[in-house]
Specification:
This is Nucleic-acid-binding protein from transposon X-element. With about 220 residues, the protein is mostly helical. It has a domain at about 100-135. It is about 50% helix and about 5% strand. The chain is built from five helices and two strands. A two-stranded antiparallel sheet has the order 1-2. The longest helix has about 70 residues, at about 140-210.
């Protein structure tokens, strides 16, 4: 996507990098009521400035400075024959025509278009005996990635189900314990109420009836 231009100006400015959530990139995006076409951002290969390798950055390199022309360790101007340190070809290590540089560009493009890691893209390029266009069409890495995601998702679902079953079992056990406690409390309360009622009835009988009728009333109440 291009930046907005000033009025009556045809000068093009540098592209703008846009980050899109997800793996699907739209053909265009509307900004300030203007549809702007967008495309994949494919980074260029990063080359170490010390050893001129294409697989690691300069900040992590622990090697000595290597001449980009002859691939030897020395200082000062070099007049030796050209020899690339990455492919041993007769050219400078910084050349954009280096087969290793071109292969790394393909790795980065495959990584970008198929949403895989750099290591996976590099292994895919090295393991397949086909040209790059066929590799992009077949996309075996996408199938492997889908299988990996599916297996991990199934494992996650299984783990969640096990945890839910354990939680449900714990809840049921707790409910059963609470129900038993409530039943015991209810039984104790009813017994206490019955005993109090019995005492009240007996007290009323003692004040109003003879001893013989007290015994009969007590038997009837207990039965």
């Amino acid at each position: 996507m291009r930046r907005f231009l000033k009025q009556n100006s045809s000068k093009q400015t540098t592209p703008v990098l846009i980050t899109v959530l997800g793996t699907t990139i739209p053909d265009s995006i509307k900004i300030w009521f203007i549809n702007q076409k967008i495309q994949h951002f494919i980074d260029r290969p990063r080359q170490c400035t010390k050893c001129h390798s294409l697989v690691h950055p300069s900040r992590t390199c622990d090697k000595d400075n290597v001449c980009s022309r002859c691939s030897e360790i020395h200082t000062g101007p070099c007049q030796r024959p050209k020899k690339c340190i990455n492919c041993t070809g007769p050219h400078d290590a910084k050349s954009n025509l280096c087969p290793a540089y071109i292969r790394e560009k393909k790795v980065l493009e495959l990584k970008c278009r198929n949403h895989i890691t750099t290591g996976e893209a590099r292994r895919l390029i090295q393991s397949q005996n086909m040209n790059y266009s066929e590799t992009v069409k077949v996309l075996p890495a996408s199938a492997e990635l889908q299988e990996t995601v599916t297996s991990k998702f199934e494992a996650l679902i299984h783990s969640v189900n096990e945890k839910f079953e354990r939680l449900l079992q714990a809840v049921n056990e707790k409910l059963e314990a609470q129900t038993a406690t409530f039943a015991n409390m209810l039984h104790t309360t009813i017994e206490s109420i019955m005993q109090n009622m019995y005492k009240i009835v007996m007290q009323s009988l003692e004040s109003n009836t003879s001893p013989t009728r007290k015994k009969e009333a007590s038997k009837e109440f207990r039965s």
